[in-house]
Amino acid sequence: MQTYFADILLPLPLKGTFTYRVPQVLNGQLDFGMRVVVPFGTNKLYSGLVVRVHDIAPKQLNVKYIVDVIDEVPIISERQFSLWKWIAEYYLCSLGEVMACALPSALKLAGETLLSLHPDFEGDLSSLTEKELIVTEYVAKHPSVSISEIAKLLQIQKIHPIIKSLVEKQIVVTEEEIRDAYRPKREINISFAEPFASDESKIYALLDELEASKRSAKQAETLLAFLVMLQKNGNGNSFSGSVKKNDLLDNKKVSPSSLQKLLEKEILVSKEIVISRLQEFDAQDAASSIHLSEAQETAFQSIKEQFDSFPVVLLHGITGSGKTEIYIKLIDEVLKQGKQVLYLLPEIALTSQIVNRLRKYFGEKVGVYHSRFNEYERVEIWNRVLNSGKVTSGNGKYQLILGARSALLLPYNNLGLIIVDEEHDGSYKQMDPAPRYHARDCAIVAAQLHHAKTLLGTATPSLESFYNTKQKKFGYVPLLKRFAQSTLPDIWVVDMVESLRQKKVTGIFSQFLIDKIATALENKEQVILFQNRRGFSLRMFCNSCQTSPTCKYCDVTLTYHKRSNLLKCHYCGYAIEVPKVCPTCNSADIEMRGFGTEKIEETLAELFPSAVIQRMDLDTTRSKTAYQKIITDFEQHKTDILVGTQMVTKGLDFDRVSVVGVLSADNLISYPDFRSFERAFQVMAQVSGRAGRKEVPGNVVIQSYQPNHPALKFVVSNDFSEMYNSQILERRQFNYPPICRLIKLTMKFKDEEVLNEASLLLADWLRAAFPQQVLGPEFPLVSRIQTYYLKDIWIKFPKDETLHRRKQHLEELITRFRTETKYKSVQIVINVDA
Question: Global pTM?
Answer without folding.
Answer: 0.81
